[in-house]
What we know:
eight-stranded mixed sheet, 23% strand, Rossmann fold, 38% helix, 382 residues, Dihydrodipicolinate Reductase, domain 2, alpha/beta, 14 strands
Amino acid sequence: MSPQGSNNPLRTAVVGTGGIARSSHLPALRTLADEGEVEVVAAVDVDPDAVRGFADKARIPYAATDLDAMLAQVRPDLVVLCTPPAVHREQSVAALRAGAWVWCEKPPCPSLADFDAIEAAEQSGGTGAYASIVFQHRFGSGARHVRRLLETGEFGRPLVAHCQTTWYRNAAYYAVPWRGRWVTEGGGPAMGHGIHQTDLLLDLMGPWSEVRGMAARLVHDVETEDVSTALVRFANGAVGTVVNSVLSPDEVSRIRIDCERATIELTHLYGYRNADWRITPAPGVPEETVTAWRDFGADEPSSHLAQLRALVADIKAGRRHPTSGTGGRGTLEFITALYKSAFTDAPVRAGEIGPGDPYYTALHGGAQGWAPAEARKEEASA
């Protein structure tokens, strides 16, 4: 099985047939199937009725409740994981060992230890297959345009940044048993909601060097936080703020970057178009330069389709996809550092969290008042 250099469609399996698979992944797969880039050959879910209904409606020939059996019998090229984060490590490793590429919904997995285990499976597999994360906001035309202008220095040095994911989730949202728990949801809004804006911020600004975080549980009866804030210093010297909330009735997702020659702003909610970006020049910037900056070209919204199209092209070309390996790990490391700083009341530097650090294996780090009781018992007996 080697799709690299081949014009054949990638034989694709969808694992997990719930809401995100139906609303985002399947439509994207159907579009690329119509273009001859993929072929959806299997679906897997622990609920036999759900997977059968999903497969029948989408005319997928193979439906099963056993992932290992599907991998052995169907041998897909690409496995799309639409399952909860608690099983992402196990399922990613199984797919990689079977020689399949993986595209995994966010959050990628509950800890850096899990992420590194997935990378180890990539390296030991010997097939060239890798796992990548659904970070679709990197792939809209707006982000591509702004990224290029930042990388080429058109805006001058980035100086100040702000990243905001302020959403609203009520008590009914958290009445679902797996929500608000570390082991099943992977974290609170810093991990499960704001991760997309955080990832886009890091993609545009470059590596971070230091985080100082705060977290609180102000409204909801959950294990995780329901709001967090962070101060961040980037490797290029710029400074920024990150705010994540599920307590905000006026919902918005926003990124703002102030550079020497311009301010770049993105304001949207769950996905953007070119019109959601605004570039404000500093005094003295020539009008023709500003006109060029504001020409975003053809409008490609940020979406699962935009990223999937790029992923399929990368797989066929034998390239590393940007959200795989270190390109995905940096975002998870940042979020881990935010939690560690918030729960220890100390700054955390990039590269600091590794094997032996309690935050390497669990985002709550065993912290009093945050870790579940059973996790604190395990920590004490270790």
